[in-house]
Design goal:
The protein is 25% helix and 27% strand. By secondary structure, the protein is an alpha+beta fold. It folds into two domains: 1-44, no CATH class; 50-123, 2-Layer Sandwich (Alpha-Beta Plaits), CATH 3.30.70.920. InterPro entries: Dimeric_a/b-barrel, Tscrpt_reg_AsnC/Lrp_C.
Length: 128
């Protein structure tokens, strides 16, 4: 199995290279950075990878907010998880490659944390 990345100058060449860690830089031939990032996962920046971002509002059982926030913060794809006051007990910021991946993150991982009673997922949109 090969792991691809882009050299530090941000451009892959047409012959491929390898760095000192053994990571193989495969040629991409794609000028579009998003497509290059999809072919070279190790080279992805947050903006190139995170096609879908969302806030997940979480209600918990009484007294469980801190434990729930801590558990959620350890889940891959979660950028932050903070316990707050108000109608929701935890606010989570999550990132995923697409809507399906976001749904899997919420349903399979976040909602599986003990102490959660309800979630509301709010995808981030860029208007204008």
């Amino acid at each position: 199995m090969f792991i691809a990345s882009v050299p530090s100058d941000g451009e892959a060449d047409d012959v491929g290279t390898a760095d000192t860690s053994g990571t193989v830089c495969l040629p991409t031939f794609l000028p579009d950075t998003t497509c290059r990032a999809l072919r070279c996962p190790a080279a992805r920046t947050r903006e190139e990878y995170a096609v879908v971002q969302a806030f997940i509002l979480v209600q918990t059982e009484v007294g469980k907010a801190a434990a729930v926030a801590s558990a959620i913060a350890d889940i891959a794809g979660v950028v932050s998880a903070e316990d707050v006051t108000g109608p929701y007990d935890v606010i989570v910021r999550a990132e995923a490659g697409d809507v399906d991946e976001l749904g899997q993150l919420v349903v399979a991982k976040v909602q599986g944390v003990n102490g959660i009673t309800r979630t509301l997922t709010c995808p981030v949109v860029k208007l204008g």
